[in-house]
Amino acid sequence: xxxxxxxxxxxxxxxxxxxxxxxxxxxxxxxxxxxxxxxxxxxxxxxxxxxxxxxxxxxxxxxxxxxxxxxxxxxxxxxxxxxxxxxxxxxxxxxxxxxxxxxxxxxxxxxxxxxxxxxxxxxxxxxxxxxxxxxxxxxxxxxxxxxxxxxxxxxxxxxxxxxxxxxxxxxxxxxxxxxxxxxxxxxxxxxxxxxxxxxxxxxxxxxxxxxxxxxxxxxxxxxxxxxxxxxxxxxxxxxxxx
Length: 242
What we know:
Layout (H helix, E strand, L loop, with lengths): L10 E6 L14 E2 L2 E2 H12 L4 E5 L3 H9 L19 H16 L4 E4 L9 H12 L9 E6 L8 E4 L2 E4 L17 E11 H5 L10 E4 L3 H4 L5 H11 L6
Parallel strand pairs: 1-4, 1-5, 6-10
Antiparallel strand pairs: 2-3, 5-9, 6-9, 7-8
């Protein structure tokens, strides 16, 4: 891929895609709107124009072949110890980045794109990368995508000692919705991670992390269940869908 515009960070896009999926078997290669699910994220990364390469980390040969056909780099299959149900994202990212930098030189940041967020746009990627690049000072913090919370924490409860207890205490329950501090939830669509954090497998969501707010429900969709897939298929086949 061509280098991004001068002045933007040298950015590696990483799409992690395991072969195992219990709720939706083989979901990463299932056709969505005429193309495999994983291709949506690869295409968005390539279309964004901010990535030096798009690297797919997978333990599955079919996914690897599908990703290569979409123009992504798939130089190896992920080691078995990084492809279990309990393997964390930090180790997967560190493994992929170590190989890439040894082979292709250092990068400034990693753009992590979950393939289960197919409608995250190239424009959203550029917006998040700009938010990352615009941070003042020599130290940059991760940028993560969030969406307005479906239910405000003030209106959620825990079941403790035989009774419901509001998560934020009783006082916020008396406030009007417009008087509550806005609440957001991670949507998993994208993460921009400083390379130094990725190299050391440092947690992405930590003090100092910055939000990139997505208000479009389609861009925020994270496909995990059959109902999610049905909704994604409806949107992907709607008139005007990309």
